Amino acid sequence: xxxxxxxxxEVSAALAAGRPVxxxxxxxxxxxxxxxxxxxxxxxxEQLVRDGGAVPATIAIMxxxxxxxxxxxxxxxxxxxxxxxxxxxxxxxxxxxxxxxPGATTVAATMIIAEQxxxxxxxxxxxxxxHRGGATNFDISADLQELARTSxxxxxxxxxxxxxxxxxxxxxxxxxxxxxxxxxxxxxxFYSRTSGLGVDYRLDSPAAIAHSLRTKWDLGLTxxxxxxxxxxxxxxxxxxxxxAIIVQVIQDADAQGIKGKAITxxxxxxxxxxxxxxSLVSNIQLVYNNARLATQxxxxxxx
Length: 303
Ligand code: PSU
Ligand code: MN
Known about the structure:
Layout (H helix, E strand, L loop, with lengths): L4 E3 L1 H8 L4 E4 L2 H6 L4 H15 L3 E8 L2 E4 L3 H10 L4 E3 L4 H6 L4 E3 L1 H11 L3 E3 L10 H4 L4 H8 L3 E4 L8 H10 L4 E4 L18 E3 L2 H13 L6 E4 L10 H17 L7 H12 L3 H25 L1
Parallel strand pairs: 1-4, 2-3, 2-7, 5-6, 7-8, 8-11, 9-10, 9-11
Antiparallel strand pairs: 3-4, 3-6
Bound molecules: pseudouridine-5'-monophosphate and manganese (II) ion.
């Protein structure tokens, strides 16, 4: 095991015994939601994973180590520091470790650390993707490249409608990343259950998903898999209404010259403001829903 990797006792014991473990990211804690909802959500997600019979491994960079499994104090720290913690993707990992600075791991960085730890299932809210205008501005999340190369399955509610969803799916197709729809034929759009776009394979049970994942990796086909799980109906927001809000917030970002990795957190916060907090409620519920499904798949894979 890498000397930089630090597993909590609980995570380490579960992995050694072949018991199910679910990875969770920390950018969503520090950059994706406001305090204290972020910390409350992170704790609740861990509880849901435990209730489902798996061990949660929240992942972050701290004290010069890649950590899988955080203490409640560490989660609190990441949530309170918020934007003061560096948003860490693949490129950032060595510098944060070398300088012993904290890093909130994105989907990409969380996948890397999960794979090193031997964790195959990861639950989040939504992945990064090709941004609108991506064909000319090249704003394509490093999450997509990570899905192409790193063998971890990511359960998400699709990609946020702030992105260009058709281009995001094209990109995944080019890099051989399968997109599974859980009990749906449609790729969900994060706050909404529908996008008008399809998935590659619809699978209706955690066991069927577990079987496909095992088969892919047994075949020697390395790389990630995207499992798209629509937000529960009760928390789904109207797609047309969200589209109008998103067009507005992207204009705000352009007008304020927001660039690079600051864009996603900026857009999320603006959407929350323009929906009077409704988007945050929806965001929290879809994360819970994804944690439950990832746990069921992890349990099925351990059987
Ligand atoms: N989805 C959320 N909230 C978030 C993110 C995704 O509901 O905060 C984060 C994830 O950590 C994802 C990152 O990896 O946004 C993508 O950022 P970028 O577009 O800069 O690659
Ligand atoms: Mn970007």
